[in-house]
Structures are given as C-alpha cells and as structure tokens.
Amino acid sequence: MSLFAFSCDNAVATETPATATVTTQSAKAPRGVVENVLTKAEQDALTPDMVIQSFKEGNVRFQRNDLTARDHSEQVRASTYAQFPKAIVLSCVDSRVPVEDVFDRGIGDIFVARVAGNFVNEDILGSMEFACKVSGSKLVLVMGHEHCGAVKAAVDDVKIGNITPMLEKIKPAVAQVEYDGDRSSKNDAFVHMACESNVRNTIARIRKNSPILQEMEANDEIKIIGAVYDMDDGSVDFMN
C-alpha cells in the first residue's frame, strides 16, 4: 500500500519492530502516570460505542480538572513507528477548543482535523477515510462549539478575503434553520441552532460524499456522530 507512504502512515508494510507499540518503562516516571499508547490489539477490541463512552467519561474528567497524568516523552517514543487511534474528530480551529484535553486523550489516541466552522471538504474526507479505512479508527465525531466565530460570520454574511468563499460551506446549514425571530449573530439562541444545523449538515455531507465511510457505517464498523462543545462549562453535548 505504497499509496499511503507518508509521515502519518501506519499502514505500509514494514520491518520495524512490533514492539514499537509497546513502551519501554521509564524508571523516572511517577507511579500512576500513563506511558503506554494504544496498540493494534487494543484498537481492534474497541467498538464505536465503547469509544463514545470513553469520550463521555473523559469529558467528565476534563470538567472536573482531573485529566489523566501522562508521560508525553515516553508516549512519543512508544508511537514512533505506528499509530492506532480510536477516532477522528473534526473540530473548529478555535483556540479555546482543546480537543484532546476535552476528551482526556493522549498521544496516539485520536486523529484531529480542524477547519474554521468544522465543515467537510475533499481533503478532510480523505483524512477521515485514512483514519477509518486504513488506520482502523472506530468513530468519526463532528464537533461544533458555542460562540463559533465562523458560524456567526456565516449568519451575518461577512465578506472578507478568503473567508468569504469559506463561509459558503456553512451558509446552507444556516439557511436550513427554521426560525422566525432575529436571525443575526446577536441572537445566541439562533447561533446555537445554526451551530447544530452545521454539525448535522457536515455529517450528511460525509455520508453523501464518502462511499467508503458510508459503507463502513452501514456495516457497523464505525459510527459517524455529532456533538457541540459548551465553552461556558467545558461540557460536550452529544447529538442524536
């Protein structure tokens, strides 16, 4: 599979030691600090629902400021030659949304794709297919967030540079919202509805434009779901 012979690949046949997925214990690491990274066997044993549950539990720890202690240096070394993430998360670029921390995930746990407004295009679809079909991830999570500047800009029809064509990817979701009140960014309730609509629209486009992911979901190999991150308290609302 030389097609995927680039730096983030773990699918190419290689003679690198299988022990690359098993960490060497550090004598200096404090007791209780996680040093291991996800292995192929551990990834294979996961179901999409198990991954979702682990995300929910991790988010509770995040809200409690009780994140798992990790030896990042050891995890970097342990994941040098291979990676077996459990999910790919599509999030906004917003600096206030620390995706790995929000779910209490460490190095090698998840793929993260980011673009303002968490919409999907051909490049991100390819990345999702790589994550799931090639690398074995079990979940595609599209995560919007409250007070999203990209969604607000789409609501207000902002015109500025390359932001203008970018917002065209979000505007259809705004138009789909049925609401008779104030349809401007000053109305937090409407912005929230637009945010949720954008997540649902992105999920629909993933299923429509990726036969690979659509088939994997139909075969229960993966799940494609949505969520919204609440900046006020750090909670994640998983959408039905």
Overall tally of structural domains: 1
CATH class: Alpha Beta
Look at the structure and give the mean pLDDT: 88
What percentage of amino acids are in beta strands? 5-15%
CATH homologous superfamily assignment? Carbonic anhydrase
Shape: globular
As a percent range, the share of helical residues equals 25-40%
Biggest sheet features = 5 strands, mixed
Tell me the series of helices and strands, N- to C-terminal. HHHEHEHEHHHHHEE
Intertermini distance:
36 Å
Number of helices: 10
Rg from Cα? 19 Å
The CATH topology assignment is: Beta-carbonic Anhydrase, Chain A
CATH architecture: 3-Layer(aba) Sandwich
Sheet with most strands: strand arrangement: 2-1-3-4-5
Low-confidence stretches: 1-7, 9-27
Entry summary:
The protein has about 240 residues and is of the alpha/beta class. It has helices at about 40-45, 50-65, 70-80, 100, 120-135, 150-155, 165, 170-175, 190-210, 210-220; strands spanning about 85-90, 110-115, 140-145, 225-230, 235-240.
